[in-house]
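Re: weekly structure request thread

Next one in the queue (542 aa):
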Amino acid sequence: MSLEKKSDGFIMQAGILAMAGIICRIIGILYRSPLAAIIGDEGNGYYGSAYNIYTIILLISSYSIPAAISKVIAGKLALKEYKNAQRIFYCAFIYVIVVGGCASLFAFFGAGFLVEQNAVMVLRVFSPTIFVSGLLGVLRGYFQAHKTMVQTSVSQILEQILNAIISIMAAYLLKQLVIDRDPSTQAVYGAMGSALGTGAGVLIALAFMTFMYGLHKKEIKERIQKDEHKEVLQYSEIFKIIFSLVTPFILSTFIYNFSTSLDETIYRKILKLMKDVDVSQIAIWYGVYSGKAVVISNIPIAIASAMSAAMIPSVSGKYATGDVKGTRSKVHTAILTTMLIAIPSMVGIFVLAEPVVSFLFPGQTNIPLAGALLRALSVTVVFYSLSTLTNAVLQGIGKVTAPVYHAAISLVVQTLVLIPCLIFTDWNLYCIAIATIVYSFLMCILNQRAVRKYLDYKQDMKKIFALPFLASVIMGIVAYYVYKLLFAVLKSNVVSLLVSVATAAFVYGILILKLGVLNKDDILAMPKGKKLAGILTKLHLI
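Done, posted below.
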């Protein structure tokens, strides 16, 4: 695939990345079940604790690099400044080597101060991955800037496959080393094995992306040689650009994701110090929340993340050339597409929460609790999807500080909700779910208001929200009763769930078309839209 022969169809690119995201989530779910059987909810708790800190350090050091680099390089590519785009690419590597290296060392040597004792070794296993992730992020951002998501998508799938294989194998083997020790020690070693899998996955993804860059190296050189722009940015200028752009990206992404770690810390401290709950029991409870409910609720949000990654370079390119109308059009298409998936996902998760958990984690304990928590988190699918997307819009048009303020405000409010909820009620994990709902809702509202202000963008509330919600409610009722009827007859959760989901998808698709949410022009704008429109016309659905 040539970097020159690129399409501006970011919905197609988002679709590619979204499909990869869904595949990765499915792989993640599939391996989570045998992994959870090996390390247990306690091991999941220690893994989740270390993973949250690892994520925060990764966010600060290099997680935002793909989005930031794709934005700044996309702007230069839109102006055909290929020399400057390549110089930015090189400087980004220097940035992540320095910052990522320091962050990796900090995670390793500071683990004892960052997590509880049983999670220290798990975080140390995670630490080298921080450095490798930075290098991977630069390469992914480079290809995303060219509006091609294929390389990133394939690398993500490879990463998740190796992650799954190594996580299960390493968790099992390490646990066998201490099979004669107490259950908590076994849980720790199992969690360390899972962390090893994460690092192995990132390493194979980096190798693949490096190989793909090498394939395009000759083409890149030829393009740079043809660049006739005389204004070449000095490296000092480029580092200023990177720091000025990456810093707000980091702050926004850090605060946006810090809520998870903060919630966990507050939860653990209050239950341990004020309610005298055993550390192992806290780890088991939190393992149910983070290892089951949150993992499942994040699957549909992957669509919004893919749409965001695909949209940043596209929006940046349009906005850099002064095409505000074109920018608004892309924003509208992205939000409509995302809501058409997020809203039915929310309803589907709500009505089939426990069957879904039972299907993905068969034979495990705490299924009713995980199902109830998943049902509580279902509404966050819409809020997080929309706020993730609008974060990308604001970053794409250069309003990178707006999401920072919004995330900070939302974080303060959700903390003020969580603390008294944990202290004065016995709602336990539901307190974290409530705080998550508050946080995601506030982010969604504040970001939406900012997008409306800066782009003069007015949403079609009926088409984007009301009609898809109506279709989803009808779909949810059908799915619920189909499942109940089949389960009463067959006594098989797997068959009942799969048939009810397939029926729900069919009903929702028909309703979306009949209610006029999607017209022929909308369908023609989709990937393979002409062929799809032809089929739907023959069926008299449009």
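DSSP finds 19 helices and no strands in the chain. The longest helix spans residues 10-63.
Next request, please.
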